[in-house]
Amino acid sequence: MPKDGGIGESTKRREDIRFLTGKGRYTDDINLRGQAYACFLRSEVANGRINSIDTKAALAMPGVLTILTGDDFTGMGGNPAGWLINSRNGEPMKEPKRPVLAHGKVRHVGDAYAMVVAETYSQARDAAAAINADITELPAVVDMAAALADNTNLVHDEIGTNQCFDWGWIEDNRAAVDEAFKTAPHVTTLELVNNRLIPNAMEPRASLADYDAGTGDYKLYTTSQNPHLHRLLIAAFVMGMPENKLTVIAPDVGGGFGSKIYHYGEEAAVLAAAKAINRPVKWVAERSESFLSDAHGRDHVTKIQLATTKSGEFLALRTETLANVGAYLSNFSTATPTFLHGTLMAGPYKTPLVYVNVKTVFTNTAPVDAYRGAGRPEATFSIERIVDKCARELGIDQAEIRRKNLLTPDQFPYTTPVGLVYDTGNYQATMDKMTELADLAGFEARRAASAKNGKLRGLGLSTWIEACGIAPSNLVGVLGARVGLFDAATVRVNATGNISVMTGAHSHGQGHETVFAQIVAEQLGIPASSVEIVHGDTSKIPFGMGSYGSRSLAVAGSAMTKAVDKIIAKGKKIAAHMLEASEQDIEFKDGSFSVAGTDKAKTFGEIAFSAYVPHNYPLETLEPGLEETAFYDPANFTYPAGAYACEVEVDPDTGKVEIASFTCADDFGNVMNPMIVDGQVHGGVGQGIGQALLESTTYDANGQLLTGSYMDYAMPRADDVPFYTVDHSCITPCTHNPLGVKGCGEAGAIGSPPAVVNAVIDALHRAGHTHVTHIDMPVSPQRVWAAMNKA
Amino acid sequence: MTKTTMTVNGKPVAAETEGRTLLSAYLRDGLGLTGTHIGCDTSQCGACVVHVDGKAVKSCSIFAQEVEGADVRTIEGMANADGSLSTIQQAFQDHHGLQCGFCTPGMVMSSAALLAENANPTEAEVRHYLEGNICRCTGYHNIVKAVMAASGQAVPAE
């Protein structure tokens, strides 16, 4: 065991030092000499034809350096959609161009159509207000069903429809599924909304672009979860230059949750401006801009049906969903409601027949893309709500109906009716653990105590599964992905034995600098403090796809361990030479290379030094140096799963819901740093409670965003949530990656919303309000009160 | 432009300000103290909290010129004189009370103000006091633990 920080330890985070002392380096903290400031002029109407943009007055204002509009970017490529989805009729999805700046039309409130660059931000902003844009406002399409039915008011005229695609999965199974419904002894039906959310990472988006006229090189500091993806999209697809002319640096980033995966037009715009004025250009979003223009999440309208026997065995499940993609396709907009959602519709259950239909719809609202969980919260919510409803209709206990239908350990690997192969799991174990930790047996006593205090107490469960560790490139390629989803690491041993690990993962809160070092330390038997993790700079790190989809450990971590394996293998060759033994006789353990059965040994440090000062070294057969790179493409998704219990207290007079307790029993496979894993679950559950009770992204009929600031968009705050009870001791290691890890970043946000809503329904039912079969999220006091008091 | 002076983290400082220059801009741009963060534009997120004459103040909601001559403390001034982390900062690290770090400066400053007012807050008092500091990463669990620990009180068992 290394002296400090190996696998399984709750090692304190080294990144905390800079964050706690104000020495973090977020994009807005970085300043380049001579930098100018950009302000984007954004549409105030949801749908409009741009007739003309008069910048004359604005150009004359103090400090203004340049003004660019959509006309200046017609020569550039559009922001590409990253995943091709085919409709049920075989037609490829509609892919209207998403320009750098809006051109011809503005398509959502907040759609940027001009950029002012000036000496100061205030000057840029004042000049933006002086731009005279003649925009004819057109009727907005906001409601998805109305948008689909409307052939006159089109978000993108050139595609002739507001439908992006109509997807079925698996289409060949549809007939059998419908047949099962025809003959099923019981069918439960539920219509529900998965409410649109705004990710609201606490750091707003920001970009700082620099152009070197001497070399023609661009550099972009930007809030990214995946700098190489930004580099590829911006250079190759949008700006039409080779990637080797662009360096993207994602420094400290204050949260992402998916919203900072995507390329946004502002990034290409500031790069173009930097070249135009030959000075660095910085842009930092105001929070109100973030509300309008960051990719939103979720926004499904679903009808789901569950066919069962009278005693609650699941026979078939089918869903129809309208999923909003907003005004433009964001990079993963099309994957989120399809291959990250439909493919999870079997849940952790043995339901033999499943069919999913998703129609995606363009509307005059902000683009919608992946947000923590990305499709899996939507699937889990639909399933766990209908399971609850079914249980109530059949008079079966909510835990019992789940236990009847959960897959059992002997069934793995399990191929689901929606095409995924779950490698391993033990859903009975997490149910048991949850039952124990949540003290389900004691619920009735707590309910009675709450009732004495005038509160209605309810218990809601959720058994969830997800597919993450994104993703096996071949498989997703067949399914339409236009990117690979492998990752990479370069492990560089320095001459004096300390290590730099360049990883394609990016930490924007996940603690990779600490955890990844623990893993390398464990593998090499050296102190974690001698391992430095480098991320975020495309000029330093090998090509990786970044951090989202709970993939950092499973994919980037696997690449790292494989690179370390290569280091050890090379080290053995060096040691064999130095110890005058054959390579097969060299053992590596606890930081030491030794000849088996003897006490002849060399330390890791001695081997490292020898590689860089190769005097006693097999130069005829082995290159000097000790640096190895590995690229890792996962064999499958990973499948963490868990069982959650939520208890709420509902105030019968006001409808207010308080979370009395929240218990999570999760299986994440092997756990590297328990403290960090707990933190990920806490944060995910916090966001899930936000979705369930508080957050609502509301556009009015004209496409105006009514919830455009923290005054109206209810973020969960410290007094909205309790302490959570989280556990990850039920471990079924992933069978197909070297660390046996499954990923934990999104689980809390996936499993929690249905547990909360199920608890509210339970509270109401126990108090006699059995007419309430569903309340849509956010389950606000007003909605609860209205449901209770509906005749 | 007016030259505005105050004491920041124990040192007298001066920078040019306009009437409209917010304290947050004075600190970040005027003095290069970028530890104070801007997370919103409606004075609700709390990332910008600093101490002005011992009181927790949202630096985005006060003009620099209003703070002329005051004693201001920012996150950069919270560590001990020898550079070691203060009790609150250490508690945040010990209990994993931060992830991305963006809300952290304001969270630490607000927590410090709380403990200066109320040395032994209950869990409910901590949560209520921090209602003006939004965190998107932690779900608040470890933040509340950290503040309770910093106050020397027993931390709720996991």
Describe this structure in words.
- The complex is a heterodimer of chains A (791) and B (158).
- With 791 residues, chain A is α+β, with helices and mostly antiparallel strands.
- Chain A is 28% helix and 22% strand.
- Chain A is built from 19 helices and 28 strands.
- In chain A, the strands form seven sheets. In chain A, strands 3-5-1-12-9-10-11 form a seven-stranded mixed beta sheet, sandwiched between helices. A five-stranded mixed beta sheet of chain A has the order 7-15-14-13-8, with helices on both faces.
- In chain A, helix 9 (376-394) packs parallel to helix 18 and helix 14 (512-524) packs parallel to helix 15 (552-578).
- A five-stranded mixed beta sheet of chain B has the order 2-1-5-3-4, with helices on both faces.
- Chain B is globular and about 55 Å long.
- The N and C termini of chain B lie far apart (54 Å).
- The chains are: A alpha+beta (791), B alpha+beta (158).
- At the A-B interface, helix 1 and helix 17 of A face helix 2, helix 3, helix 4 and helix 5 of B.
Give the chain pair forming the largest contact, with residue counts.
A-B, 60 and 57 residues
Helical/strand content category of chain B: alpha+beta
Strand order of the largest sheet of chain B: 2-1-5-3-4
Q: What oligomeric assembly is this protein in? A: heterodimer
Note the total helix count of chain A.
19
Helix content of chain A: 25-40%
Strand percent estimate of chain B: 15-25%
Strand order of the largest sheet of chain A: 3-5-1-12-9-10-11
Largest sheet of chain B: 5 strands, mixed
Average predicted confidence as pLDDT of chain B:
96
Counting DSSP E segments of at least 2 residues, the number of strands of chain B comes to 5
Pattern of helices and strands of chain B: EEHEEEHHHH
Strand content of chain A: 15-25%
Number of strands of chain A: 28
Mass-distribution shape of chain B: globular
Helical content band of chain B = 25-40%
Mean pLDDT of chain A: 97
N- to C-terminal separation of chain B?
A: 54 Å
Structural class of chain A: alpha+beta
